Amino acid sequence: MVDQRLKELEDEGMVIRKVISDRPIAVTYELTHFGKSALHILEELRVWSESNDVQINSK
User: Fold this and answer.
1) What is the pLDDT of residues 9-56, one digit of tens each?
2) What is the pLDDT of residue 56?
3) Which residues, including other chains, have CB under 8 Å from residue 15's CB and lie 6 or more apart?
């Protein structure tokens, strides 16, 4: 599930996947310039949700 979402974010240009080692496989993900441009919006959403006491229920 996480792998699929990271692949989607990579396909959309939000993150870059970097392979650190092949054996064992190790990768990191880094925000692109485009991904970083969304941080302000996400921060505002966090502030809004906290100030309105919005609760997110996980399934």
Assistant:
1) 999 999 999 999 988 999 999 999 999 999 999 999 989 888 887 566
2) 60
3) 6, 9, 29, 30, 31, 32, 35
Q: Using alpha carbons, select from 33, 27, 35, 40 the residue that is nearest to residue 8.
A: 35
> What pTM value is reported for the model?
0.70
- DSSP H helices, the chain, are 2-11, 33-36, 39-51
Looking at the structure of the chain, the number of domains it has is 1
CA angle in degrees (0–180, nearest 5) for 30-28-48? 45
Range of the domain at 15: 2-51
Handedness of CA 26, 9, 31, 17 (dihedral sign): positive
